[in-house]
Write a structure and sequence with these properties.
161 residues, mainly alpha, three-stranded antiparallel beta sheet, 6 helices
């Protein structure tokens, strides 16, 4: 610490405990919620041979249809190199293919294969019983309320991905 920086005692410090009033409290809670959800969903996907990063791309492909890699990167919060690795994995597994984009010699659109659609559906079936663990501590209607709040919080209330 330097002498010219005043020490403030009125600012809450992040503790991660319930009732934490620090400016980091919400972010810490969201991070914990993500870890909890990712752990449960990873358990559902593991027997199918894919990871959450793969499934995130399959979700976009199912929703949007063939999608160029740069748009997949934006939609999944990935970077260019990361999305290339995921698409490589999906191609190797026969779950997606890259196809030329008419009118753009450099661009490649990624398209889900019939095998990818089958795996997508199998993932949902596998996740169904596990998903109840995500909301086990919530009361009636609270899971729907949480989903609504998170949708608005992330700015996806209008249906954008």
């Amino acid at each position: 610490m330097t002498a010219d920086v005043p020490h403030r005692t009125t600012t809450s410090r992040a503790t991660g405990r319930p009732g934490d009033a620090s400016p980091f409290a919400l972010g810490l809670l969201l991070r914990r919620a993500h870890w909890h959800a990712a752990t449960v969903m990873t358990e559902a996907l593991r027997p199918l041979g894919i990871e959450l990063r793969h499934f995130a791309v399959l979700i976009v492909l199912m929703d949007r249809g063939p999608t160029v890699q740069r748009d997949l990167a934006v939609a999944t919060g990935s970077d260019k190199a990361g999305i290339m690795r995921v698409v490589d994995d999906l191609e190797r597994k026969g779950l997606a293919v890259r196809k030329a984009v008419p009118g753009d010699r450099r661009a490649r659109a990624v398209e889900i294969t019939p095998e990818g659609v089958e795996l997508f559906d199998a993932a949902h079936a596998a996740a169904e019983p596990l998903s109840e663990r995500l909301v086990a501590g919530l009361g009636p209607g609270e899971a729907e309320r949480l989903a609504d709040l998170l949708t608005r919080f992330t700015g996806h209330a209008d249906g954008e991905a």
